[in-house]
Amino acid sequence: xxxxxxxxxxxxxxxxxxxxxxxxxxxxxxxxxxxxxxxxxxxxxxxxxxxxxxxxxxxxxxxxxxxxxxxxxxxxxxxxxxxxxxxxxxxxxxxxxxxxxxxxxxxxxxxxxxxxxxxxxxxxxxxxxxxxxxxxxxxxxxxxxxxxxxxxxxxxxxxxxxxxxxxxxxxxxxxxxxxxxxxxxxxxxxxxxxxxxxxxxxxxxxxxxxxxxxxxxxxxxxxxxxxxxxxxxxxxxxxxxxxxxxxxxxxxxxxxxxxxxxx
Amino acid sequence: xxxxxxxxxxxxxxxxxxxxxxxxxxxxxxxxxxxxxxxxxxxxxxxxxxxxxxxxxxxxxxxxxxxxxxxxxxxxxxxxxxxxxxxxxxxxxxxxxxxxxxxxxxxxxxxxxxxxxxxxxxxxxxxxxxxxxxxxxxxxxxxxxxxxxxxxxxxxxxxxxxxxxxxxxxxxxxxxxxxxxxxxxxxxxxxxxxxxxxxxxxxxxxxxxxxxxxxxxxxxxxxxxxxxxxxxxxxxxxxxxxxxxxxxxxxxxxxxxxxxxxxx
Lengths: 263, 264
Prior knowledge:
Chain A is mostly helical.
């Protein structure tokens, strides 16, 4: 089964290979996104001598890592799923000898592989332009990677939930944007969570989102209290189970209920 | 001249059809518009956080930046609505072969394509921009005169034309790649630079958004005029728009000559 999933992932990654320009354009997009953040914080730092409680180089590293990791968290197979619902191709996919979830998980891995390549490229280019601080220790770097990996099933199940909404509305475009906005707000894409109001910080401590971006980056730059790490890891695993159950039940319910455009 | 007028009239009827289509996809439209507004929440939260950490950004305070933001959204909303179909040239028209049909129409293909835009959800941007603009004008105690309203209406449309011109120029990439959307999108994203005072940027980016891709003329210079900081630069905007469109139509016609059907 694993082999099938990897084969799907490879196939999906190769789709990106056909259009090499995608790689440059997507990386370029990431660079554009980081420019505003960095210049705004630089301006604040030069005016007030403080960048939201971080040093300027920490803040710059924060945003460079945000735009590098962000594709892993936000990209995925939602568009493909929406397309398959709209065109009725989903009929065939449901009859596949591999389950719908595993099929799309494989595709999603391919997408993430592409996101990782883009992320690394963006990171390297940004590092040349602005300079970044490296992870404070090797252990921190490993924990950073573990948290990123734990994020993959979480973002995948979120996509499946968003995708299933498409069965009802016929289009997943709107819900997709909503998914991305929610993750962007709660994961710390906009700014480190510590700069948000206290109630927001309390709330996001229980949600799985800040561990997708904010916590890994804080571990990288050495601003994370390591005694919390066990709690964080357990929390993520619990969320994976919860989201899996919701996604699975919701999907099964939707498949029974829904009539699909004849394909 | 009559030809230009004819084209404008034709575009008007295209626009009417698009607006009618909104009624067909009512639910999707509402969901889409709401989502567009939610995405903007991301930007607004960022601006809010910035001003938790500083009193002013290169001399602009929170309300002034929000006014600039609202004015930008007005133009972006109009532009997204009117020029959305440019994204389809590569993936939809050329690759699927629909472009050949468009060439057979007795209308310039560019008008045919742009007229087919129906990105009604971007009206969410427009609405949000309108709300923010009005609130900020009131809060900043800028007198809302008829003249100011006319100015904002006129320069929002001019701003949308500047965005549309830049997008049209970029859309010729579809004649080679058959998938224009990503390239237009990439370049288009640079407009976000002009949502902040350009004094925070280095020389290269200042040059980029005023000369190479004149996004600063979409809302930045107009907003400076509304705030009474710089009276004259705003009047360059229409000139920029006209120049961009002359270039756009020229390069588009050149690219059209290179067009080879994918034939299916």
